[in-house]
Structure to design on (141 residues):
């Protein structure tokens, strides 16, 4: 559909970005990022957080630190218990360059500040998913 030019609206580009963001390769994540950015240029503001998340995911896969802090991958050095929320525990934000972007730029992309991200990490590692605080209030994903 992309190659035929059938994905053109902000909403369609966002949905396409969301699909590729759940791919497995660096080109999947890079394409997801470009699609999310294009959705933003077409006025689809829900793509703000997704454009940040796709960049972070791409950077991590190519061995670079994320810059927004949206990704909480498994940390091989932490336990991953099967019970009590094992699906969420054992997470990290590393590698993460938390000094690369100022808070206002994170905020522009609906990404919580560093303090909230630390709390989100603690919540994940306690076995729960912090859905309400993964983006800023008033931002939709």
């Amino acid at each position: 559909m992309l190659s035929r030019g059938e994905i053109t609206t902000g909403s369609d580009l966002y949905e396409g970005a969301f699909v590729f963001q759940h791919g497995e390769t660096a080109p999947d994540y890079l394409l997801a990022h470009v699609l999310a950015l294009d959705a933003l240029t077409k006025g689809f503001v829900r793509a703000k957080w997704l454009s940040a998340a796709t960049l972070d995911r791409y950077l991590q896969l190519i061995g670079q630190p994320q810059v927004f802090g949206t990704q909480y991958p498994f940390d091989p050095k932490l336990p991953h218990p099967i019970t009590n929320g094992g699906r969420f525990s054992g997470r990290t934000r590393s590698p993460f360059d938390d000094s690369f972007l100022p808070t206002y730029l994170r905020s522009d992309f609906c990404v919580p500040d560093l303090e909230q991200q630390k709390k989100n990490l603690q919540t994940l590692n306690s076995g729960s998913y912090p859905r309400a605080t993964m983006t800023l209030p008033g931002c939709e994903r």
Q: What stands out?
A: Helices lie at 10-21, 26-41, 47-61, 103-108, 114-125. The chain has five helices and no strands.
